[in-house]
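Researcher: Structure prediction, please.
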Amino acid sequence: MNSKKEQLLYVESLKSNRQSKRVLIVDDYPVVRTAYLRLLKENLQLNIAEAETGKKALELLSKESYDLVILDISMPEISGFECLKLIREQYPKLPVIICSMHSNSHMIQKALQLGASDFISKNSNVIKEMMPAIMAQFEESDRDRTKRMTDLLQTVRGEKLAPELSEEMLTATTFSFVHHLNGNFAILNHSVKCIVNEMSNVAGGKNESLDTYEFTVQECLAEMSYMLQRFRNAVGRHPGVLRVQEVNSILHDVKSHFSKRSAFNKKIRFKLTKQLTEVMGDKELLWHLFENLIGNGLDALEECEDGCIWVSTLVNTSQKTLCISVRDNGSGIAPEHLPRIFDANFSTKSGGLGIGLFLANRSVIIHGGTIKVKSKAGKGSKFTVQLPLKSAKK
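Model: Predicted structure follows.
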């Protein structure tokens, strides 16, 4: 089934017979299950069931019959491979598609040996690969399936797959994830207020300790909500139409954000060009880019009494670029860490998430620019961002 017309005809045949096609999605992440469910229901209108663990999946399979199982590998209680082995023993003809981030040749080979019908890497374009893979299970011969899986294994052996989830997968799941957490933050905030009021009534009025506890919890919730918003804007949001943005103005907005922490505000010094600093961009992504660079610099000044952040902008008319530099005289970055600072899940901070500079680099790339860093341990760091000026951006 190679042509688009054939695929569309097959989709229509599935829609007309959707009640007879039952698919079980097994993944421990609710947002991933939701993304799969929406994709399959909207495009194929299949009858979908969900399970958050392999144990739950086996329980559902014992009660009802299914035409296909989509199975993750890393799950609590029993792994996807253990679950696949048990499915093969109990339901030898039931097709099982493995869908996992662990997509090296060893994992794919193990899946094949245990009897997987197909393997989809979450590092690839999951949204585009899922439908053809499901269609194949309902019409492909064993011989064709074996050949396709062999080709897949050979491809993976010859290529290095990226460690991050695809853009499509992130976009499909991030908003659901953020919405869920924001709801929990609102509940926690309301619950704290109720607890404080109840305790005040029992104590005959508020006291200083209760006020301090309430303020601390609300500050923490506000900080978490802000971090979540930053994550949503930078990861789950890809700009549609880029608009004219004045970078100097965005930098002033970022400085105002840090002005709430007066001790930090005194350490930020601007030297901005008086020329226009207009670029074609996404305001939120640019704001978070500069907030991250300045925030990292402030963190590096924690043990530096005379520490300072210097932020400057310079227009290069010959190259038609805008140069933004953020320099500090703080703790600096160790030489062995420099090659990895833009990698996902890498952080030199205690308790750091390892996403800030990864997302900063992503924002720069989206805007057609470059970001470079120079640093010496104990001396400080300088990040330099170059963005094409508005007149240079087509």
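Model: DSSP finds 13 helices and twelve strands in the chain.
Researcher: Thanks, that helps.
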